């Protein structure tokens, strides 16, 4: 792979933003391993394998936490952040995710969207209240199953 350099063991680093258009500068893409590790190819590959395995373990733990109790999505994004310390593809996915989350947060703060959400929540609460009232009127506080002699 041509990295644009004649130095052995140097990792390719692409600049995402130059900061000339007034936009905030973002970190350069590429490995964030210490220089002494990047200087030796075998050590750098071992480092990447270790980062991948640790990130994979964290992502798998997050996936397991999705249906089980625990902060599944937070752990998955933590695993992605671990991968992003070494892999450009993970850095790009993490940047895309951060951008989408920020856009969603801005949309959620829009007064029209908030008003719609409040109206829909109110309608849902009224429907649940009516259904609970009908159940209590018909059956009282008796449970739908009969438990006797226990």
How would you concisely characterize the structure shown here?
With 150 residues, the protein is mainly alpha-helical.
Written description of the protein model:
The protein has 150 residues and is mainly α. 61% of the residues lie in helices and 0% in strands. It contains five helices and no strands. It has helices spanning 35-38, 41-65, 72-84, 88-108, 111-139. Residues 1-6 and 9-20 have low confidence and may be disordered.
Strand content: under 5%
> What sort of overall outline do the alpha carbons produce when their principal axes are compared?
elongated
How far is the N terminus from the C terminus?
A: 75 Å
Rg, rounded, reads 26 Å
**Number of β-strand runs:** 0
Order of helical and strand elements: HHHHH
Overall average pLDDT? 79
Low-confidence stretches: 1-6, 9-20
In this structure, how is the largest beta sheet organized? none
Q: Helices and strands: which structural class? A: mainly alpha
Number of helices: 5
What share of residues is helical? 55-70%
Key words describing this protein structure:
5 helices, 150 residues, single chain, elongated, mainly alpha
Topology:
Blueprint: H1 35-38, H2 41-65, H3 72-84, H4 88-108, H5 111-139
Helix pairs in contact: 2-3, 3-4
């Amino acid at each position: 792979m041509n990295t644009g350099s004649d130095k052995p063991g140097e990792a390719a680093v692409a600049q995402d933003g130059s900061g000339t258009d007034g936009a905030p500068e973002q970190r350069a893409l590429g490995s964030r391993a210490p220089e002494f590790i990047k200087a030796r190819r075998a050590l750098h590959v071992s480092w990447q394998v270790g980062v991948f395995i640790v990130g994979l373990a964290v992502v798998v733990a997050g996936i397991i936490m999705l249906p089980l109790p625990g902060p599944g999505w937070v752990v998955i994004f933590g695993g992605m952040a671990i991968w992003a310390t070494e892999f450009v593809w993970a850095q790009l996915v993490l940047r895309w995710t951060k951008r989408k989350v920020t856009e969603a947060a801005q949309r959620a703060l829009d007064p029209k969207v908030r008003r719609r959400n409040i109206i829909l929540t109110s309608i849902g609460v009224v429907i649940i209240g009516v259904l609970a009232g009908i159940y209590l009127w018909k059956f009282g506080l008796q449970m739908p199953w009969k438990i006797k002699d226990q």
